[in-house]
Every structure is written in structure tokens, then in C-alpha cells.
Amino acid sequence: MRTVRAPATSANLGSGFDVFGVALDRPADVIRVEKASRTTIEVTGVGSQYIPEDPEKNVVGAVAEALDAPAHIQIDKGVRPSSGLGSSAASAAGAALALNALYDRGYSRSELVPAAAEGEAVVSGEAHVDNVAPALLGGFTVAREDEVTTVDTDISLVACLPEIAISTRDARRVVPTRADMEDVVHTVGSAATLAVGMCRSDPELVGRGMDERLVTPARSELITGYENVRTAALDAGATGVTVSGAGPSVLAACYPDDRRQVAAAMVDGFDDAGVEARAYQTRVGGGAVVF
Ligand SMILES: Nc1ncnc2c1ncn2[C@@H]1O[C@H](COP(=O)(O)OP(=O)(O)OP(=O)(O)O)[C@@H](O)[C@H]1O
Ligand SMILES: N[C@@H](CCO)C(=O)O
């Protein structure tokens, strides 16, 4: 038997659509695997009632198949599904690492990224790696075609999760297919600023670098109360605010001492819009861990 803790992640960070990702210190899924002749899945924990146990439909089934590693897989969800906090990626990355250890396959974490991404394809239709890469490798990750670059960084974050569910598949339908050159230039500037901020562990640069006009405006319209929450977080000291992944979570960067007040302001911002929410006071953390 092998057990892995696999972290929540936040993809995009505004300016890095389908490219940037960070591992979050919390919340996390716990995955336990035991060798078996065929794959079976059991899901407990947050939102487990919405997660299929059929190996054809659960992300970990695709991972077990990609690694040719049948197992009984128990998933204890700490990351709510359809949250924008890489719920499916936490399970997929955790299963990839656990099965690799169980069957002594000897793959490196980087080599496991494509196998974990097969799980993402099951739920969103595309094997994008911007959540599974940070869930496996930790830190800030930049995914470009089949190459992933990682940076260790120390940035405080608040992830505020409202009681709204948005599937990645639906949120991808609102992404514009064309862009204005001025907005593209603005986004490249933001992305570069954010990357430098991560390298320097500088919350001001990271926060400013989240700003972009290509995807976030369309995505934020799916989140009731987004503008309220954004303004409240900035007023409470956040250095930048954006949609986490495909939403509905909202992500804020801040100084460590401001985390508590930013979290409270974001929950109040959703409350003013009539939406219940909870906030995770977190930071950029490490990748999945085998116990
Ligand atoms: N092991 C799993 N954990 C979570 N969701 C799963 C799992 N297996 C299948 N799913 C399905 O995947 C969907 C959730 O994935 P989705 O990518 O939409 O959300 P997310 O991972 O929280 O978001 P994001 O990728 O934007 O951070 C739900 O429909 C859920 O039933
Ligand atoms: N980059 C992906 C992350 C969500 O899984 C998106 O925003 O659609």
C-alpha cells in the first residue's frame, strides 16, 4: 500500500492562461493505492457525492491505465471538485506518484506529468498540464508545449471558494478565440512581471502581474460577486486578484501579515452578493508527498 498527499493548485494566475500554475500549501487530497488485478475506486471527503467511482470517469482511472498499474484506489478529497483549485489534478497527480511508487516504475516527477494529464483529459477534454505540473513538482510552474520549468518561491496567497460550481469544460467555452494586439501586449507584460515576481518572491510584482484582459473578463462574469470580492481584497491589502483556474475560486496575492484580513474581506465580499464562501489562507507550497 502507498499513500500520497497531493496539493490543491491554482492555474493561470491571470496572465498565464494554460501556462502558469502554483502548488498551494493547503487544501489537499489523500490518495491510497493497493495492487489489484483491475482498477477499482472509492471516493470520500469534500464533494465526494459529485465524483464518479467508475474508472472510465474518474481521473485516477485514466492515470492507472496510462501507467499500466491496476489498483484499488482510495481518494479522500480535501479539494472540492469544480472549485478552480485543481481538484481533479490533485487526484490525478497523487495517483500518478502513488502508483509509480507502488509498482516501482522509477519515473521522475517530470516524467509523471503526461500520465497525470491523461486524467485531466477525462474531465475537461484536454490534457492540459498547468494544474498537474505544480501538483507533482511544487512551487511556481511554467508549462510550454512539452516542457515545464519550475521556480521555488515564497508568496502568500488567499484562495476564496464560493458555494458555486463551475466545470472547467464549461469555463473553456467562454474563452475568446480572437484577441486584440494591444491586449496581447498588455498580457505579455503582465506575465513577464509575474514571473520575475515569483523568482524574487515579491508579492507586489506577482500581484501586478496577475492583471490581464483576454480571459479573466469573460470568466469572471460566471462568478456571482466577483467584482465585489476583488475590490474588497484590494482594499484589505491584496497586491493582485484574479480568477483561480477556471473558477469559481478567486485568488489573491498579498504580504503574509495581510492574509487574515484579505481572507475575511473576500468572504464578506461574496456574502454581500448573497454567496456563501470559505477562504484558505495559504502560500505557494511543495508538490505531492509520498508517506
Ligand atoms: N478524482 C477526482 N477528483 C475531482 N473531480 C473529479 C475526479 N474524477 C473525476 N472528477 C470530475 O471532474 C470534475 C471536476 O474537475 P474540474 O477540472 O472541472 O474542476 P477543478 O479540478 O476543481 O478545477 P480547475 O482545474 O479549474 O482548478 C467534476 O465533474 C468531477 O466529478
Ligand atoms: N488552464 C485551465 C485550468 C483549469 O483546469 C483553464 O483555465 O481552463
Automatic annotation (TrEMBL):
Domain GHMP kinase C-terminal: 196-268
GO cellular component annotations of the record: cytoplasm
UniProt-listed Pfam families: GHMP_kinases_C (PF08544), GHMP_kinases_N (PF00288)
Residues annotated as domain GHMP kinase N-terminal: 60-139
Protein residues bound to ATP: R80, P81, S82, S83, G84, L85, G86, S87, S88, A89, A90
Subcellular location as annotated: Cytoplasm
EC number of the protein: 2.7.1.39
Pathway the protein contributes to: Amino-acid biosynthesis; L-threonine biosynthesis; L-threonine from L-aspartate: step 4/5
Principal subcellular localisation of the protein: cytoplasm
Top-level division of the source organism's lineage: Archaea
Catalytic reactions of this protein: L-homoserine + ATP = O-phospho-L-homoserine + ADP + H(+)
GO BP, one annotated term: threonine biosynthetic process
PANTHER family: HOMOSERINE KINASE (PTHR20861:SF1), HOMOSERINE/4-DIPHOSPHOCYTIDYL-2-C-METHYL-D-ERYTHRITOL KINASE (PTHR20861)
Function: Catalyzes the ATP-dependent phosphorylation of L-homoserine to L-homoserine phosphate.
NCBIfam families (UniProt xref): PRK01212.1-4, thrB
Protein name listed in UniProt: Homoserine kinase
The organism of origin for this protein: Halogeometricum borinquense
